[in-house]
Specification:
This protein has 15 helices and twelve strands. By secondary structure, it is of the alpha+beta class. Strand 3 and strand 4 form a beta hairpin. Helix 9 packs antiparallel against helix 11 and helix 11 packs antiparallel against helix 13. The N terminus is likely disordered.
Length: 416
């Protein structure tokens, strides 16, 4: 048993030693240059894959965070054919609204109302939609968007005449925090109120920033002559947004027959379709990067084999098996892969950290919904990318290495 173990280990050490000597002795040769190119390709490949994944995930998370914070995961409204911004009222004494806390998959439910109108100053007029929020509104979800002033003090029992407007609306109307505006509410007969601008928000999402302002739900109830038991609808936040489709059916079965649930992806399909398109583009990009890495690895090993054809013939003549000779070049290929991965990870992590910490690469918020390139850290995803490149390129190495079995000792030694 001991003899078998020793004879198994010694050849492995010998061929690993030969592999090291080949790698060190290749300095200045054409195969050495190709090896450097292969190492660089793998380093650039893992670096680019890491950056693309971190940026894409950061981008998607920021967009989803903004949309979900402003529009929730699921909205419940009265089922009607009303296509205006305003809703017909829903009651708050429904079984679903009273008992939603019993469902562990639901994080929060809050009420809202919308009311269309015209903001008026001495110089400008702007059509807007006031989103009325109540004391159950989760202010923490929108605090990130407040760029000036404060959000509404919705805990107050009084009817607030304060509003929070978007940065775009404030710029168009040339107003700032502390200014007063007149809002004419669209109804018959029309009503108006003098409102105070106490805050300015900026999400970068034109679907919201172009027309949504925040106000007190009690003010909209007062305008509509609604009692405190009515609202425009419910906004539902789930603990896991990936379960929206499942909860869509659950909520539709739990609400009153004259109500209907609506997913946020159905209300803003253009944004979510755009995010899906980004996923497909990045997938194609990843495939191309992997193909380039594999091509360079195969080329590098082929050139090594061609330069060492006489050595391969000599080893076979001394009794080395095809597998033992192949292990020499597999060791060389493995060294190239590991060096490339190490270098690529160092560069990729450094670039991600610099962008995450200092935000040196800006974006146009009108086109990208944010003012800088976002970075998302996911250790498991980075590890998966490394394993993907490692195993794919290692598997591809078997293609050139297999040609060693076709090299005949007599013919190859003639090249000495």
């Amino acid at each position: 048993m001991f003899a078998v173990t020793v004879t198994t280990i010694i050849p492995l050490n010998i061929y690993f030693y030969i592999s090291e000597r080949i790698r060190r002795g290749n300095k200045g040769s054409f195969s050495a240059i190709v090896s450097v190119i292969a190492t660089t390709t793998i380093a650039l490949g893992i670096c680019v894959l890491m950056l693309s994944f971190s940026v894409l995930e950061g981008f998607k998370r920021e967009i989803r965070k903004k949309i979900f914070s402003l529009a929730s995961h699921i909205q419940v409204r009265l089922s009607d054919n009303n296509e205006s911004y305003e809703e017909n009222p829903v009651p708050l004494n429904t079984e679903f609204y009273k008992n939603w806390r019993n469902d562990r998959g639901i994080e929060h439910v809050q009420i809202f109302c919308h009311k269309a109108g015209l903001l008026h100053t001495k110089k400008e007029v702007q059509g807007v939609v006031m989103k009325g929020v109540g004391d159950d509104y989760d202010v923490e979800k929108v605090k990130y968007a407040i760029v000036e002033g404060n959000f509404l003090n919705i805990r107050s029992n009084q009817v607030l005449r304060d509003i929070v407007v978007s940065k775009q609306i404030a710029r168009k109307m040339m107003i700032k925090t502390g200014d007063s505006v007149i809002m004419f509410f669209v109804q018959d007969p029309p009503k108006f109120r003098k409102l105070n601008v106490i805050g300015i928000y900026d999400t970068g999402l034109e679907e919201f920033d172009n027309h949504i302002i925040f106000g007190d739900i009690k003010l909209i109830r007062q305008i509509n002559n609604w009692p405190d038991t009515l609202a425009g609808g419910y906004e539902i936040f789930l603990k896991d947004y990936k379960k929206m489709d499942d909860y869509y059916d659950i909520i539709n079965g739990a609400i009153n027959f004259d109500m209907v649930a609506e997913l946020v992806v159905d209300r803003y399909p253009q944004i979510f379709e755009w995010l899906s398109l980004l996923d497909r583009n990045v997938l194609v990009f990843w495939v191309l990067i992997l193909a380039v890495c594999c091509f360079n690895m195969v080329s590098s090993i082929f050139i090594m084999i061609m330069e060492r054809t006489p050595m391969i013939g000599s080893l076979k003549a001394f009794g080395a098996t095809n597998l033992q000779v192949q292990s020499i070049f597999l060791f060389n290929g493995l060294t190239i892969i590991l060096r490339g991965l190490l270098l690529g990870n160092l560069i990729g992590l450094l670039l991600c950290y610099v962008q995450y910490q200092f935000k040196i690469i800006p974006l146009n918020p009108e086109n990208y919904y944010m003012n800088h390139v976002p970075i998302h850290w996911d250790v498991y995803a980075i590890l998966a990318l490394n394993l993907l490149i490692f195993f794919v390129t290692l598997l591809i190495l078997c293609i050139p290495v297999m040609f060693i079995s076709y090299i005949k000792p007599v013919k190859s030694i003639k090249f000495c």
